[in-house]
C-alpha cells in the first residue's frame, strides 16, 4: 500500500459550509421540537401517555441505527450517504409538518431518525477525510465543534420563535431549506478522497445486534423515566441491551469485516473521548430541559424570550471552540483542553444550582450560561477532532458514528436520570414542607425549583467525572505537526505514545 499523501481539495472550505449546515440541522432538531410539543399535542389530540413518543421515536431510530449508518457511509461513499441522508431528512420533515394525526407525526419523527443516522456520521467522516493538515483541521473542527455543542440551544431559540410567531408545523418545515441548500452544495462542491471507501462485505449479524442493543438501551432509559428504575420492563430492557451488546462485541472480534472494528474503540484516547463526551452530554441535555421549564413556568418567560436566554451559552460555545480550542489544539495536548473545559462547564453548572423563585438572570443565570458554554466549546472542539484522528479513512464512518452514538446515548441517559432525580427531590420537598406552606401554588413552584437544583448538582458531579476521565485516559500529544496518522491494525492510533510528531500522512488506498 503506497504511502502517498492525499490531494488537497481546493474547495474544502466551501464544502465545510454545507457539512456544517447539515450538522446544524440534525443537532437543532433534537431540541427544536421540545418547545413546539405542547402546541402539537393540543392540535393533533396526542394523549399525555403518547406525548413522549414524539421525542422517543426519533431517539430510538437515530441512536439505534448510527453504527449502521456510519458503516454504510464507509461502504457506499460518504458524499452519497450524506446526500441521501439530506434528501430523506427533508422528506421526513415535510411529512412531520403536514401531519394530520398522531400516527403520521410519530412515523415522520422515526423517519427523521433513520435518515439522521445516515447523515450525522457521514458529515463528521467527510470532515475527517477532507481536512488532514493539522492547522486546517483545527479550524474546521473548531467550527464543527461549536455547531455540535451549540446546535441544541439554537434549536430552543428557533423553536420558540417559530412556535410563537408561526406555528409548531414550522419546526419541521424549517428543515427543508436547510436540507435543500446542503444537498445542492454537496453535489456541486464536496469531493471525497479517492480510495477512502471500505468495500468489505456488510456485517449483517453485527448490524442486527448493534441496532437491537442500542434501541434496547435507549428505550430502557426512556422507560426508566416513566415507569421507574426497578420496574420489570425497565430491567428487562437493560438486561436485553447488555446481552445484545456483549454478543455484538464477541461477534465483532470474530468476523472478518466487522461493522465496528474493535481497533476503533480499543485505542485509549478515542475511548476516553467517547466516554467523556457521553458523560458531558448527560449533564447538558438535562440542563436544557430543566432550564427551559424553569424560565417559562417559574420566571414566566415566553418561548421566544426563553430561547434568547440561552443565547449567551451559544456565544460561549462558539468562543470556546473557535478562539480557544481551535487556536490551542495544535500546540496543547487534548486532555489539557478537555479536562479544564469540562471543569469550567461544571463551575457554570454549579452557579445554576443556586436558582430560586426570584433569581436574577443577569446576576446568576447569565454568568452560569457563559461559563457553561465557554467550557463545553473548549472541550468539544479537540474531542470531535481526536475521535477521528488517526483512524484509517475506511474506518472514518464508524469512528464518526461512535461520536454520535456516545452523545445520543448520553442524551437519553441524561434526560431519564436527571428527570428521575428532579421528580424524586420535588416530591420529597413538597411532602416535607406541606404543613407550613402559605399556598399550594407557591409550594408547587418551590418544590419544582428544588427538584431542578438537586438534579443540576448531579450534573455538576457528572461533568467533574468527565474531566477526570478525559485527563486520565487521554494521553496523546497535540494534534499539530502534520496530517493524522493512519491507525494500524493493532489499534494504536496516531500519537498514542504521546508523541505528536510521530505521524504520517493519511494514505490513499
TrEMBL record:
For whether the record's keyword set contains NADP, the answer is no
Q: Does the keyword Electron transport apply?
A: no
CDD domains per UniProt: MFS_MMR_MDR_like (cd17321)
Topology relative to the membrane: Multi-pass membrane protein
| Span list, region Disordered | 481-500
Q: Where in the cell is it found?
A: Cell membrane
PROSITE patterns registered for this protein in UniProt: MFS, SUGAR_TRANSPORT_1
Question: Domain Major facilitator superfamily (MFS) profile: where?
Answer: 15-478
- Transmembrane regions: 15-37, 52-70, 82-100, 106-129, 141-162, 168-190, 202-222, 228-251, 272-295, 301-324, 336-355, 361-388, 409-431, 451-474
The signal peptide annotation in the UniProt record is: none
- Could you tell me the superkingdom of the organism this chain comes from? Bacteria
Q: Which UniProt keywords apply?
A: Antibiotic resistance, Cell membrane, Membrane, Transmembrane, Transmembrane helix, Transport
Please give the InterPro entries that the UniProt record associates with this protein.
Answer: EmrB-like, MFS, MFS_dom, MFS_trans_sf, Sugar_transporter_CS
Name the record gives this protein: MFS transporter
Amino acid at each position: 500500500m503506497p504511502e502517498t499523501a492525499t490531494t488537497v481539495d481546493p474547495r474544502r472550505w466551501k464544502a465545510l459550509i454545507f457539512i456544517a449546515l447539515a450538522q446544524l440541522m440534525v443537532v437543532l432538531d433534537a431540541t427544536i421540537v421540545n418547545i413546539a410539543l405542547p402546541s402539537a399535542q393540543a392540535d393533533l389530540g396526542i394523549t399525555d401517555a403518547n406525548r413522549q413518543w414524539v421525542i422517543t421515536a426519533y431517539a430510538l431510530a437515530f441512536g439505534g441505527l448510527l453504527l449502521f449508518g456510519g458503516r454504510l457511509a464507509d461502504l457506499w461513499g460518504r458524499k452519497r450517504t450524506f446526500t441521501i441522508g439530506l434528501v430523506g431528512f427533508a422528506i421526513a420533515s415535510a411529512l412531520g409538518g403536514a401531519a394530520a394525526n398522531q400516527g403520521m407525526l410519530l412515523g415522520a419523527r422515526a423517519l427523521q431518525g433513520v435518515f439522521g443516522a445516515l447523515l450525522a456520521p457521514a458529515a463528521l467522516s467527510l470532515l475527517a477525510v477532507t481536512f488532514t493538515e493539522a492547522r486546517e483541521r483545527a479550524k474546521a473542527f473548531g467550527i464543527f465543534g461549536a455547531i455540535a455543542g451549540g446546535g441544541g440551544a439554537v434549536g430552543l431559540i428557533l423553536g420558540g420563535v417559530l412556535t410563537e410567531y408561526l406555528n409548531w408545523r414550522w419546526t419541521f418545515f424549517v428543515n427543508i431549506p436547510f436540507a435543500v441548500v446542503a444537498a445542492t452544495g454537496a453535489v456541486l462542491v464536496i469531493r471525497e478522497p479517492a480510495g477512502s471507501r471500505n468495500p468489505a462485505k456488510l456485517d449483517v449479524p453485527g448490524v442486527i445486534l448493534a441496532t437491537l442493543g442500542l434501541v434496547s438501551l435507549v428505550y430502557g432509559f426512556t422507560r426508566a423515566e416513566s415507569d421507574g428504575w426497578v420496574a420489570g420492563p425497565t430491567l428487562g430492557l437493560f438486561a436485553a441491551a447488555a446481552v445484545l451488546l456483549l454478543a455484538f462485541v464477541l461477534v465483532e472480534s470474530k468476523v472478518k469485516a466487522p461493522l465496528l472494528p474493535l481497533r476503533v474503540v480499543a485505542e485509549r484516547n478515542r475511548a476516553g473521548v467517547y466516554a467523556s463526551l457521553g458523560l458531558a452530554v448527560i449533564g447538558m441535555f438535562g440542563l436544557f430541559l430543566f432550564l427551559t421549564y424553569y424560565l417559562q413556568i417559574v420566571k414566566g418567560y415566553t418561548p421566544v424570550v426563553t430561547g434568547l436566554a440561552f443565547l449567551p451559552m451559544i456565544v460561549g460555545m462558539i468562543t470556546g471552540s473557535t478562539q480557544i480550542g481551535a487556536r490551542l489544539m495544535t500546540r496543547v495536548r487534548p486532555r489539557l483542553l478537555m479536562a479544564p473545559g469540562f471543569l469550567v462547564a461544571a463551575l457554570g453548572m454549579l452557579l445554576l444550582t443556586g436558582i430560586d423563585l426570584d433569581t436574577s438572570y443577569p446576576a446568576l443565570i447569565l454568568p452560569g450560561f457563559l461559563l457553561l458554554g465557554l467550557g463545553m466549546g473548549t472541550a468539544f472542539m479537540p474531542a470531535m477532532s481526536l475521535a477521528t484522528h488517526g483512524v484509517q479513512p475506511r474506518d472514518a464512518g464508524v469512528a464518526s458514528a461512535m461520536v454520535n452514538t456516545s452523545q445520543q446515548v448520553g442524551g437519553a441517559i441524561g434526560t431519564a436520570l436527571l428527570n428521575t432525580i428532579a421528580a424524586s427531590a420535588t416530591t420529597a420537598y413538597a411532602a416535607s414542607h406541606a404543613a407550613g406552606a402559605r399556598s399550594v401554588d407557591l409550594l408547587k413552584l418551590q418544590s419544582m425549583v428544588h427538584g431542578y437544583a438537586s438534579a443540576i448538582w448531579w450534573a455538576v458531579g457528572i461533568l467533574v467525572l468527565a474531566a477526570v476521565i478525559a485527563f486520565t485516559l487521554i494521553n496523546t500529544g497535540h494534534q499539530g505537526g502534520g496530517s493524522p496518522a493512519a491507525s494500524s491494525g493493532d489499534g494504536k492510533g496516531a500519537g498514542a505514545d504521546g508523541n505528536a510528531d510521530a505521524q504520517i500522512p493519511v494514505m490513499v488506498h
